[in-house]
Amino acid sequence: MVNLTDLIGLGKNRSLYEKRQPVFPKAIDGRFRRFKWLVMAVTLTIYYVTPWLRWDRGAFAPDQAVLVDLAHRRFYFGPIEIWPHEFYYVAGLLIMAGVGLFMVTSVIGRAWCGYACPQTVWTDLFQHIERFVDGDRNAQARLAKAPWRPAKIARRLTKWSLFLIVSVLTGGAWIFYFADAPTLATQFIAGDAPQVAYATVALLTATTFVFGGFMREQVCIYMCPWPRIQTAMMDEKTLIVTYRDWRGEPRGKGRRPATLADLGARPERLGDCIDCNQCVAVCPTGIDIRNGPQIGCITCALCIDACDQVMARIGRPRGLIDYATLEDCAAEKAGRAPRRLVKVLSHPRTLIYFALWSGVGIAMLLSVGDRTRLTVSAQHQRNPSFVQLSDGHVRNGYTVKLRNMEARPRAVEVSIAGMPGAVMWTEGGSRDRASDRLRTTVPADALAKLPIFVAAPARDEGSASFEFRARALTEDRPETAVVRAEFEGPERK
Amino acid sequence: MAERKSIDQATGTETVGHEWDGIEELNTPLPRWWLWTFYATIVWGIAYTIAYPAWPMVSSASAGVLDWSSRGQLEQELADDSARKMPLLKAIAATPVEQLPARPQLWQAAVEGGHAAFRNNCTQCHGTGAAGTAGYPNLNDDDWLWGGDLKAIEYTIAHGVRNPEHEQTRASQMPAFGRDGLLQPSEIADVVAYVRTISRQQAPTAEARRGAATFATNCAACHGATGTGNRAVGAPDLTDAIWLYGGDEASLTNTVAYARSGVMPRWEHKLGPTQVKMLAAYVYSLGGGERSAVQMAEASPRR
Known about the structure:
heterodimer; A: Immunoglobulin-like; 5-stranded antiparallel beta sheet; 15 strands; 18% strand; B: mainly alpha; Cytochrome Bc1 Complex, Chain D, domain 2; two-stranded antiparallel sheet
């Protein structure tokens, strides 16, 4: 009988699939932990509070400071309103986000992963809940091994309920970016919200619950492409969380020699690492940083905090595990001084990233203030392209579109320039009352579509070229928009 | 196979134990939950084929327990759509055509509904843009044989032109002056010259002056003393720039000699009064529509 695992060359005890090793990270305090608290507070505050900020835009636009109005295809960011055709501003923001991440990664490695990524922030939050319900690392491990008795079931149910509450709040907050938050909140509770709102909350609740509560580091290691991409952006000049092996090895338990004399008393010199395993205990992805840089390290720096505490206790200098570049590690190992921080931060690649990033930002800032808020376009009627009128004149039809991108209705005068003798009228008007201009009111933040007829004396060359001019008749911020149009007619033989 | 545990030096990972031309494969097992998601997709796939039409049978595919079909979905959507439009159609049916422009929502619905009906029923002769061709009037222009206000257009569409079995149809007949020997060829040539003069296509000639007398005797009864036509009998205005059958000498000679009598079907019994009303609105909206007394009386001019 041939065994499948034998056939493909696997040993008897080797499995095709790997069971997840549970991670029970130990609570730790220290400078990086406190910084992580701060980042968590800031990011969660931004996430939960932003949709509730108000911004007065007058009677004709929503008063939500940040609103992605998918139904009406408008994007509101404070004083800036983006129409769909201005989506390149959003593309610009995405480019800035991308280049910004490259920049940060090239300087301090996976800082995004370690501090600001939602997966990290929510995993962190869930792990705190876990410690709150189950106790710290050892208690959690014991509970995991314990049989399913009422006490364990009660704890698990408590923990999962808390997870679920956080998940629902997470999914629930997301939808407020897409509709007026207070209105939607009332509707949502009353059960009158659109179906898509409930579906979105359900989906995000499920993903938060599963990814934050159970998958955790598996998302970072197996699902996220970013760790793979980031390795291309890091080099030996990048700050990463590193174990100074030249200082720590050979590791071992026991007293450290205080003097050279003591050293002489022992055959082998012990490094600073006392192999206390605290760096492994606090790691949220369950890796051993002493094995060197690896895909599982999200550079949250909690191992630095853990190791610093131990070093303080055994009276050795801090920084056995520390942010350092591989280049500096090599230098220190060889007895040279590491580079100064300003040099670390200013290598050419970082500066190029910074120039790109700020270039895109400045270009967008400059152009966003000077955007036109009135546009005109004219679509020539193609079939028929012209109409012979009984008095010998020729009529052409156009669909003139006036786009008023200001949040107030505006009176707009449309006129014909460059074609003497031409008159225009729209639906409801007539040729006998027509002149070379007409007035209309374009509603606030809207597109007005005017079917326009233009009549002009027939000309020998048949077609002619002219302009539609649209002028906003507002006292403040007058605007004019112009579009070229063709006037067709019969060619005289 | 012998049990052999080999470790890759660079990564510290076990290899699967095989070697192909010096290349070894690391044994990096998939996470087990990945396997579960794979099984979940299989379950999903099977459930999907049970819920929806999928399995090929002898004459058709299995229907699926949800009883869904794309044809059924289309029927449902069409039914929903006509239910949605029903109140508008009822309102249009209840409103006289000349009062439609005063109610912008009804007017717009009527124009759009008329456009759809036009594409189905009228484009064969009048063209997709309603620009017509020789013998089929251009509905965009401001020249109307039988009248261009909403009521007149509605009547023409409803009852047709020169419809033999229909009493209310628009009817008239121009005599074939040449074929029936009512005018001599030289007289026809004179009349043609006269018509081309009053339509400002050529300068007055001796021929045209002779033609004026012939015109007064033979043509003025329908086309009017000055040649401006008569809508009661569908006699075209001969002084304007628009010619249904052509304004050149050959076409005009042909018209006078053999006469013209275009026909149009009546549509009311086929499309019903509401669609005819919507068609009238559409034709009117093409740009040449004339304002009726009702519209003139409306105090507030619309935008």
